[in-house]
Amino acid sequence: MKNDLFTEIIGQHTAKLLLTEAIERNQIAPAYLFSSEIEGVGKGKTALAFANAILSRGSRSAIAGESKHLDILQIKPTYTENTSQQKSVPAIRVEQVREVIEFLSTSAVEGKQKVVIIHEADMLNPTAANKLLKTLEEPKTGTFILISSYPQKLLPTIKSRCQIIPFQRLTDEEVISVLKDQQIEVTEKILAISSGSPGQAIANIKMLASISQEITKELEVPPDDILKALSLSNSISSWNHQTQLWLLTYLQYNWWQKLKSTKLLAKFTHARQQLLHHVTPRSVWDSLLLP
To answer: 13-168 in CATH: which number?
Structure first.
């Protein structure tokens, strides 16, 4: 097996080394947990490359990067039927684990085994998690790849049956390289608040683009006029909760770079805690923005 299985994956040297050795030695574990402390660092892309590498041992038609290989099943959290996304939390449900069991119960189409990739595995609901645990305990002609940025939320008994593959934050240079491959330019501000995650950088770019440029321009520095501060507070407090939390992070970095004020940092910490505990947004922003 060649050493170029993961040439399209930037960074993640430890993960790539462990997975390449598993393929070259033909020592594939029954289950893996691709784990990181932050989303968007390449776990999903690596999982797909690894799945295709596993299957290519028994089939010449398995192509690296091919996402529609018939012997790969990908499971992702879903919303309950007839429920708006705004009013429910996505989860991996027992019906989806039953789909996994049915998938593994049939013979592989092109090779000797199958691969199941479970994205955001920490979002397994309790019933689904217990059913998955029983499935992991049974001998199957398949390999599981669980992906999670919150591995502490997984059942310990599930984690104990997986080989842990650690994924790290990327360097700024690696994030820029990933985005450049996608023809995406990133500013220093966005890069700084993206925590070494290309996925988070893309989300941050989209979030910034969704916010009024007039407001972000007025907030380049803390407002020094009471009426302007109240007007900004009124506008921002009408936004959705996630956008307000994001703006706090963006402003905290921006203002710290310009003012280096520990007093302001304390105000941001307090504002974030208040928003997370559902204090009235207008009150939070008034307190933060008023001079």
So the answer is: 3.40.50.300
